[in-house]
Structures
1.
Amino acid sequence: MPKVLKEKILRSEALARSIYRMTVESEYISQTARPGQFVNLKCSDGIEPVLRRPISICRVNREQKTFELVFQVRGRGTELLSRKKAGDSVDILGPLGNPFEISAHYKKIAVVGGGIGIFPLLFILDEYGKHREDNLKAFDLSAFIGFRDKDSIVLKDEFEKACDTCRISTEDGSAGCRGFVTGLLEEELSRKHYDIIYTCGPTAMMKKVAETAGLYKVPCQVSLEQRMGCGIGACLVCACKTKYGDGWEYSHVCKDGPVFWCDRVIFDEQVEDFG
Ligand SMILES: Cc1cc2nc3c(=O)[nH]c(=O)nc-3n(C[C@H](O)[C@H](O)[C@H](O)COP(=O)(O)OP(=O)(O)OC[C@H]3O[C@@H](n4cnc5c(N)ncnc54)[C@H](O)[C@@H]3O)c2cc1C
Ligand code: FES
């Protein structure tokens, strides 16, 4: 059940050029949020910008009652958010959206992300990691994360700690493997089976991940990004076409998503995004 909350920022730090991490104290979000969910933030105490901005929950710390957001400055809203400091408060609505399906039934798990799409994937790895500690279940966790160049790489250490295998690609080859992260996934799938793939990032990347998953018959969930207004299914701003039987229907990314099984997504109808 989402709530409007005014919470305290404990830390705000720049991770890379125009990428910031904000650590927020929130008993409610830290205890109730699930991987794939997001919060809708008011970016300033004034009137402008009127609309809240959606940011995925990157991690929660249930013991310390905190959660983390990592965001890229894109425009006015995220610029204002990046100016907030430790001790300031932030007005949030959340947790929102349909989360990723996390199940002990999946043993071999891959997350595939590109650009700002990598942030919600860390929460998935943490959640499986926690299951592993609690139940001694043998999960095999792999991450494939792609960036434009070496200066855009963020959260590398966090990903490496959270999984068993972490492979990085950069488009210009300045770090990790040269090329797209989808190439790394294809290479891996040709020799190893996964029980599920979770992906988030640019539409073209997710489309390719979904096609590759389909080829190897691996279930795949994608997290879509759309411009949003209310974040709760009331304003229709985030409507997108999804498959329904032999035809299609409108879904709300904020309420029915942002996470969908890939076979419901009509990738060519998705607005271009901001990987
Ligand atoms: C469910 C969800 C989760 C998200 N999680 C994250 C996250 O974890 N980290 C992160 O950095 N960003 C995330 N985003 C994107 C973030 O919400 C936008 O970057 C932010 O709203 C931009 O606001 P702004 O005022 O800074 O920019 P604006 O001035 O509103 O826009 C700047 C530019 O970004 C484009 N844009 C803005 N919002 C969207 C959108 N939703 N889809 C496509 N293009 C858009 C605009 O067309 C414009 O070109 C998420 C978006 C969604 C829908
Ligand atoms: S953002 Fe208003 S319906 Fe989705």
Note: The chain has a mean pLDDT of 93.
2.
Amino acid sequence: MSIGLRGLVFVLMILLGACATQPAPVIVYGPPVDYGPPGDPKNPPQGTFQPNAYLRLCPGMSVSNAPPHDSERWVIDFNPVIVVGQIVMASVPVNDVCLASGIGYRAGRMHEGIDLTSRPPGPVYAAAPGRVIEARWSSGYGNQALIDHGHGVYTRYAHLEYFDAGVFPGAEIGYGQPVGQMGATGNAEAPHLHFEILTGDYNNSQGSKGLAVHSPFGFPAYDFSGY
Ligand SMILES: [Zn+2]
């Protein structure tokens, strides 16, 4: 029996913004997910994470490789829940962050991911359900976790201060479950999350370095109209 959880996990909340940093109404919701039968080990429960509906470039910061944004630095047509191949995921797996860097050349070097930061540093969540295939130190990335979401889609979470107890190679992880804490391990000047959406086949001679990295801002929004 396969029970779709999609209807159950769709929660729509509208918060009328009185906060100076989020002047626009904020719509938050979890992406619809279908893990398969309840109780299946490959059916980890989803966490309580709900992505923010809007994303802003970090104030007072010259943001390299910024996606299109308006005069108040809000990312135009930001999609909090996107479709990457056959995977529905949160495009920004942290709450109340600003965008410090996009993907592209930065100071003469390719920046293969997006940088997200908040003060104080916050928890980092799994962008979609999957299986942890790496949770270890890597030069440059510091403490980094890599999640295999199936169908050739992966996400990487780098510069973590620490890993959550449930994050180890082989662990199944649900959407919105904690991965760790935003940190500044590896090549990072200040606490932030370096986040990558990757596609390809991990079983290549270069492992995760052999995967293709994509900007979260280039994928279509998940269509919630059926829910
Ligand atoms: Zn980065």
Note: The chain has one domain: 55-222.
3.
Amino acid sequence: MIDHLRNFNQARFDIISGPVKSGKSNKLITLIRTFIMDKKKLNNDLLVVKHPEDDKNSRGRISSFKKTSIDAIEYKSADEIANEITDETKFVVISGIHLYDKNIVSLCDSLRESGRIIIAGGINLKSDGTPYGSMDQLLAKADNYEIMSAICNYKNCNKNAYRTQRIIKNNKEIFEPRCLVDYEFEGRPDYKPHLIDQEPSLETIVGPMFSGKTDLLHTRYYQITNKDGIAIFKWMGDSRYSTNKVVSHDKDDIPSIDITNTDDIRNYLEKNKQINLIMIDEVQFIKGSYELVKELLYKGYKIILTGLKRDFRGEPFGYPNSEISKILTLATEITNMYASCYRCEHPATESQRLIRKNGIIQPASFDDKIVVVGGKDLYKAVCRLHHEIKGAPPNRYSGRFNKIKI
Ligand SMILES: [Zn+2]
Ligand SMILES: [Zn+2]
């Protein structure tokens, strides 16, 4: 959670996400006040902006339901925000980030690359259940998360609401928070009867290589008493060989089910009705994982996943069709893990790929083939400032912002 990261003082992108009425603005305001203001670096180094369509009742301010508010400049495009960044700007706060054009992804990327800290609030999903604006890519590009929930106001539910439902009341369009059970969208799968008494949830454990994601998954496994209800799926590669659901044992002696595609998981669950909690390690490798996770979550399962959200180039894993990015928009909790940068010991958020070419170890190039003939791969965890990608294509804002130190 964001509050605990005060010593993470460079090149960082935090996202506060959730449905309508989940207290995102309140969280933004609290963070500005505690995290930033107590560093006494207010004046010119803080830029607070909001999209004009975000909370239209509060012009020129970010306001929370707790009646706190803070001044914000309204800009309707990423380019307009970029124009306001000066050499002094160190912190950029963006409210309503889901409403911005797609350039916002490049902007946040470039700001982070320059060493700045970005804190943004946005709605994860549209009312049709698909990612809002560029939220999928933004979540993959972020380093730290706070997933907020509201209270489901469907009948007398009062459960945690992670979704936004669009309804028409008296010819007026309104948006209400809904829990995962009461949320409706076209094509919603039927709830599994044996899961009726549990609240579905999706925790995604993300972070760079060597950040301990699988260890945390194992910890979660040990924390649960009813182990009969758990199924752990392990991806076995895109290979021809089929294990016919052989139960293997890894070094921690946790039983897992080998899979080669998403139907292996569906078939296993059809045959094993006692399962209520699904764990999947390294989800980024599984084709069709977004559709699968979406389906199982709305059927009522609890799900815990680990995954690499960014590749060695810093792009969303699988880009331009990153499934893990879209999975992040569905999450009810995102746990970000950090490694330690091998060069400066700051929290490492990136996976650096190094290759040995002609005996020299060097950063891999953006378009290096996955297997370099005669080369040997090395991976290290690094912070954003020590992440090197040779030949990375420039984006819209490349070279625009001076490098800063906070
Ligand atoms: Zn509900
Ligand atoms: Zn570093």
Note: Residues 152, 154, 157, 159, 178-179, 181-182 surround zinc ion (ligand 1) (CB under 6 Å).
4.
Amino acid sequence: MNNANKQPPDSEAADTAAGLSHRFCVAPMMDWTDRHDRVFLRQLSEHALLYTEMVTSAALKHGDAQYLLQHSEGEHPIALQLGGSKPVELAEAAVLAERSGYDEINLNVGCPSDRVQSGAFGACLMAEPELVGNCVKQHDDEC
Ligand SMILES: Cc1cc2nc3c(=O)[nH]c(=O)nc-3n(C[C@H](O)[C@H](O)[C@H](O)COP(=O)(O)O)c2cc1C
């Protein structure tokens, strides 16, 4: 079969535009994918996209953002996963993360744990597509 005219799927086109590949990633895992684990994982794969543990937008707003966003050059490509459902707070958190050098900002809309659901974010956001849209739009408006 001739694949010469085959267009890449949209996700691949977006990856190319962003200079990032999602072909092989290590998922965000609370209590696992901290910076020490990511340095270890980087020894196993040079190109895998590494996700952080979820960091809430509230923690970045009210806590030690510099500490929470800490990572080393050797961890790239690296994506920060944010948790939250307040559009302005998430947008501010994403700006902080971009400034500290993350290659991608990911919004947690998939984690089903009780801890996450009680905070009104994670998988329960799948039931609120309009709110998720507002969270993403708020970030686009700020940048
Ligand atoms: C210990 C543990 C912690 C996790 N924490 C998160 C998290 O913080 N955010 C998230 O989106 N998913 C979290 N997940 C889900 C994983 O990111 C991943 O989606 C899940 O393990 C399924 O991956 P698989 O389809 O490759 O098996 C966690 C999973 C595990 C096992």
Note: Residues 27-30, 32, 53-54, 81, 108, 110-111 surround flavin mononucleotide (CB under 6 Å).
